[in-house]
Design brief:
The structure holds two protein chains of two kinds.
Chain A (H helix, E strand, L loop, with lengths): L3 E3 L3 E4 L5 E7 L5 E8 L3 E10 L2 E4 L6 E7 L2 E6 L8 E8 L8 E2 L3 E5 L1
Parallel strand pairs in A: 2-11
Antiparallel strand pairs in A: 1-3, 3-8, 4-5, 4-9, 5-6, 7-8, 9-10, 9-11
Chain B lengths: L3 E3 L4 E4 L4 E7 L6 E7 L6 E6 L3 E5 L2 E6 L4 E6 L8 E8 L7 E2 L3 E6 L1
Parallel strand pairs in B: 2-11
Antiparallel strand pairs in B: 1-3, 3-8, 4-5, 4-9, 6-7, 7-8, 9-10, 9-11
């Protein structure tokens, strides 16, 4: 079974802090994704990566950056956390280009106070 | 206008009922269509996917796509309390990088 793990289930951070969210997948998938999920808005793509060190902006990249130094690991960075970044963050992976099925991690509930 | 519209519910039905969940989408270029199920405090998991108009059946679940009206449906027969979850429709173009998700419909099946 594909397993996508996220470093924390719950995080509370203060405004202005730098926040790192880590995601690891164990199935040698090429593609990895970061989404945020908010009530009424659904899943919105922040960034995705189709290879090591390669990244592409999604629909809402402002205020975020990502890093993919190893194939299995994809990190989301909030450079200076703000209260409007309070959300559920979901990491996902898929096998390769053209693979539509995404495997999701359990999510990180981030609260910025 | 959102690219994918989905009624958020909640939808509450008795056990054994037939459930109909629906989405509309705006971009006629979308080529693949999926339903994900998300249990509370879990990530979404793929339930069904299809490329074409028509019906696709898997056990108690049937996915229906009408490309002419840009309408996606999921039917659940003989619904069970274990079907209680949020159901997200999803669609996109070839490549699989930019999947657009609906906001999700929360379903409660009462025993």
């Amino acid at each position: 079974d594909v397993k996508v793990t996220q470093s924390s289930r719950y995080l509370v951070k203060r405004t202005g802090e730098k926040v790192f969210l880590e995601c690891v997948q164990d199935m040698d998938h090429e593609n990895m994704f970061w989404y945020r999920q908010d009530p009424g808005l659904g899943l919105r793509l922040i960034y995705f990566s189709y290879d090591v060190k390669m990244k592409e902006k999604g629909d809402i990249p402002e205020g975020y950056s990502v890093s993919r130094e190893k194939k299995e690991r994809f990190s989301l960075i909030l450079e200076s956390a703000s209260t409007n970044q309070t959300s559920m963050y979901l990491c996902a992976s898929s096998f390769a280009s053209g693979s539509y099925e995404q495997y999701f991690g359990p999510g990180t509930r981030l609260t910025v106070t | 206008q959102k690219e994918v519209e989905q009624d958020p519910g909640p939808l509450s039905v008795p056990e054994g009922a037939i459930v109909s969940l629906n989405c509309t989408y705006s971009n006629s270029a979308f080529q693949y269509f999926m339903w994900y199920r998300q249990y509370s405090r879990k990530g979404p998991e793929l339930l069904m996917y299809t490329y074409s108009s028509g019906n696709k059946e898997d056990g108690r679940f049937t996915a229906q796509v009408d490309k002419s009206s840009k309408y996606i449906s999921l039917f659940i027969r003989d619904s069970q309390p274990s079907d209680s979850a949020t159901y997200l429709c999803a669609t996109g173009n070839t490549g699989g990088f930019k999947t657009i998700f609906g906001a999700g419909t929360r379903l409660f099946v009462k025993a």
